Amino acid sequence: SELIRGFLLSGMPCPSSCPPGLLALMAPGLALMATFSLPSQAGDRRALPVEKPPGVKGRTLILLDVNTKSPVRIISENFLSLQLDPSIIHDGWLDFLSNRSSAKSTTWGRGSTGEKKKSKSNKNQQQERDRLPSRAEPSPGPDGQRADIVRSDIALDKQKGCKIAQHPDIMLELQREKAAQMHLVLLKEQFSNTYSNLTLTARSLDKLYNFADCSGLHLIFALNALRRNPNNSWNSSNALSLLKYSASKKYNISWELGNEPNNYRTLIGRSVNGSQLGKDYTQLRSLLQLIRTYSRAHLYGPNIGRPRKNVIAFLEGFMKVAGGAVDAVTWQHYYIDGRVAKVTDFLKTRLLDTLSDQIRKIQKVVNTYTPGKKIWLEGVGTTSAGGMNNLSDSYAAGFLWLNTLGLLASQGIDVVVRHSFLDHGHNHLVDQNFNPLPDYWLSLLYKRLIGPKVLAIHVAGLQRKPRPGRVIRDKLRIYAHCTSYHNHNYVRGSITLYIINLHRSRKKIKLAGTLRDKIVHQYLLQPYGKDGLHSKSVQLNGQPLAMVDDGTLPELKPRPLRAGRTLVIPPLTMSFYVVKNVNALACRYR
User: Fold this and answer.
1) Looking at the record, which segments are called Disordered (predicted)?
2) Cross-sheet strand order for the sheet of 567-569
């Protein structure tokens, strides 16, 4: 099943994004990015020669081979996950996840496999019981809950399955007006760092969990870490009430404590160091062990921000105390300030490569204290500050997103949680009509085609290797995985390539070695309409993609290429290529 930060999802949920909470979609598969000619890793074969295609003078033909004997990495089946923000409780969208979006998110979840959903919040938040014998104390603080993508007003019926409540179109229109007004309030809070309290009632939690459960998703809930005792230790009374309620309902939830704890001084005027947060996590682990339902529940953290020097020191303090208490170490990354982003930013290879350095920093600390501990990029988005309309939600943003997936898999990050499914900003996967945006389709293709095993590739004919110490600026990114075992259109042993072409000219790739003379299925994603890279619609192999109805995804039809045909990659595009019947040893078995 998939994990969602705040929510745990199994399969691909419908497109929607939310600010602090996250819906995590995870998919099996490992990827290796090739940015220049790599040492041969495909057995004993010699380095491939650089050739020029017939009839194209002065153009370089790129030769590509894959090591099919063994994977270089194996990532989680839930690699691609999504985030859902608790602000949907505040602005009213929670009630609409239960009808229109629920059908799409359920479709997404069942259309792919291995996902998690998370919900978090940077708002001061209260967690209280609704219509329960007792009420938990309000807990101020910018932390949020993480949960599986859950639709509100969904009734669970073992005989008839999940029922989706339908609201009239006029109610959806009124909700959009309400959300637009709330959007202005949330932006004001964000820029002023003064947040209003958000109360999570038992009814809201029920809606979230039921939505996740009906969508086949797993919920990861982030508890509020900002309730503090006079000695600055965590006050767990509010969390304990929530845990007991969840246990009484037998909710299968994983847990986390806090969100970007390195920024607490800015948010509440009081800092918490890594050592103290480690003690708080140890306390939470003890609480979970006291509750039978959660005695073996997973716990993740500390969900720090960008690993600058002070944040690395924070992580070191945390790992010394609580490295053994968490099941995976988590952090967040946003590439660009959404208030100043331009479309050309998404085409800069220097920007695409900034994530590599952060991964190395996190891995160094984790491997020092808990070698082998899994690492998650728990919050990732193309832009911060809510993103920018017609940019963060456009086709252009997909270059960063797809490269992030390939880069993380190739470097062994176990899970990535996308910010977000539905929220008040523009980083989401669906719009306010719950129609899929470009990154939704990109994620869906990834979930359908990419498995958890990452394969090494050998490339010849790319640009010269950059000088030592220089950031790699190659504009052709190539990754290889075993094809997803859950995709029954392809036999085991098939291989999927995904390619990002940032060049303003087409590139030609000739499959060599084990891939030579195999039939290939092409899934080429391009912008649809006159807006070009700013487009919010995409076409697959020349056919526009859109939901058939609220509950039906279109058929994602490949374009078969004859055996031995050269792959022609159009400029400024993203594409997937399934190489059929390779019978790769690395891909025959799970």
Assistant:
1) 103-147
2) 457-460, 61-66, 507-511, 567-569
